[in-house]
Amino acid sequence: MSARYREPHDLADRTLRDRAVAAARGDAPFDLLIRGGRVFDAATGRLRAADVGITGRLIASVHAPASRTDGNEIVDADGLILTPGLIDTHMHIESSMITPAAYTEAVLPRGVTTIVWDPHEFANVHGLSGVSWALEACADLPLRVVMLAPSCVPAAPGLECSGAGFGGAELADMLARPGIGGVAEVMNMRGVIERARTISDVVQAGLESGKLVCGHARGLVGADLNAFMAAGITSDHELTSGDDLMAKLSAGLTIELRGSHDHLLPEFVATLNALGHLPSTVTLCTDDVFPDDLAQAGGLDDVVRRLVRYGMPPAWALQAATLNASHRLARPDLGLIAAGRRADIALFEDLSAFRAAAVVANGALVARDGTLIGKAKATSTASLKNSIHCPTFSASDFKVRSGGRRVKVATIHRPRFTEWGEAETRVEDGFVVPPDGATLISVIHRHGRAPTVPRTGYLTGWGKWRGAFCTTVSHDSHNITVFGGNEADMAVAASWVIEAGGGMAVARDGKVVASLSLPLSGLVSEAPLAEIAGDFTALRKAMDEIVDWEPPYLVFKACFGATLACNAGPHQTDLGIADITRPAVMETPVLETLE
Question: What is the pTM of this model?
């Protein structure tokens, strides 16, 4: 068993405690002495001049400056601020399209020492074997990874089909494994509220394990929110406004304030500032970080930096990212720089730029000047390859068949907060002509568990597309999703992605103009982060030529959540048009023949 899986019980080691007590008394030298800096006290929010002595994995002493010089290794922290290592309370490594080892090399040197990873992207593609791979890949990393058991595989049972199906038995299996810290975000909100058997079994497995049961409560208010929480779910990161934030805080949920929706952060900061104090139940998370953003700005350190830039007191942002997070995880060994705690320490140049000059993790100096000392251990990825199980398609496969000469069709209106719509259009040669102003969306099952038939629908409020985009990163079932202004470019983009074994492609005028290969699960790559970030940046630029974006909702990121059928409103899936409030999936958007 990996030493990491024994945490936090590894700190009960009597020999370690004997050594730390002796060093604290001054009867033995420290293994590592950090001197000359100022310590951020996450309990009081204050800074004070102090040196920190470390023995093994433990902080043995926080003492007056220059009062001790006996360290086997000395770190000079003159002008630096020491904070507890940052804790990301909810995230998905797969969203950065890199492996856990590469993610470690990206964020640990920035001061992020702990992440809470929900590997439900891998789970939706590979099932339990995907979770097993994730555990193996994180077992010996210097970055602390608290793994959660994916709760929603698929996210909307009966409305979509992913690569596996999890119920109570699968959750109990995962929760019994070393390294699994709880149940990941429960996304099937209606199922929880209505006590659907499968998702109720999932939540029950979490309750019986005594571990965390995390939530996804977007749009829930009143009786629905109470019912969701009464089921046993205790957190949320799906906030939509300052009022929503206050309602969720007042209800008693732990808040995982996420950085992936930047347009909301200023309102959240204003709401908390008006409250006048930081509730102990506010933590921070990244949720999803694209590879170019990760390479350029970082992970949770970037969230802390932006919150401060938007007006949050630095002490609050740090408390949320450290002490509050440790309380949420029931990890009293983390979150404070204090004697007897685990030695996870970030040394920042200041509390505005939050640039880490050095990082100590588990008592060892692991990074200097933004670079990891040594390489993170990589894991074989053979089991993640060859995950695309469908043929290529022609343009006609993306057309909707219909009889008659004129029909009424259902449409999916606007990104993110979708609504049902209707339109009338004509039929030519047995195929529906897309309604004026509509964007085509087609989803193809790719996991080998359902027919590989493109299910096409019509989006409105998505602008006028001048080409097509295909992706196998499509939350959360990760089927092949194709958007386009015409069927020919959709076929070109989809064929490239299928033949590449997964990834993304932009097509225009019959040719691929930008692409990113993601051969591992159709989600990630073993290429260096810089290379993946460069390709993704090129994709973004190519997409700017395909469609005119209208922030904050009609943005490139919306393409990856357009199939998220667990959320309210209509969504296209591999089975058709699905809506959690309706009893059946519509296989075709054709509502009726008019003539």
Answer: 0.96
